[in-house]
Amino acid sequence: MVKYKVWLDRKGCIGCGSCVALCPDYWDLGDDGLSHIIGGKRIVENEEIVREEIILNELGCNIDAAEACPAKVIHIEEIGE
Ligand code: SF4
What we know:
There is one protein chain. It is built from 2 helices and 6 strands; from the N terminus they run βαββββαβ. The chain is mainly beta. The protein has one domain (3-79): Alpha-Beta Plaits (2-Layer Sandwich). Strands 4-5-1-6 form a 4-stranded antiparallel beta sheet, with helices on one face. A two-stranded antiparallel sheet has the order 2-3. β4 and β5 form a beta hairpin. The longest helix is centred in the last third of the chain and has 7 residues, at 62-68. The protein is globular. Bound molecules: iron/sulfur cluster. The site of iron/sulfur cluster has 14 residues, from α1. Residues 8, 13-19, 35, 69-71, 73-74 line the site of iron/sulfur cluster.
């Protein structure tokens, strides 16, 4: 069964909130004004969250979030089991 990895290159996020507006089940803005993937895994470098990712069976509204992101920092990859 195909799964999907949705990941955020957080350093490029400009905090516009489009992902949150279109896909609030998965996206939220953090205290620093940049987006987070709800329930996502956070990759930290030098005490800064540089990347977040989540593995999903279905993309749902994440497609809309990725397409709408003006900074093009929401990425979707198909992955195997
Ligand atoms: S749409 Fe893109 S730039 Fe805007 S808050 Fe979401 S991830 Fe950041």
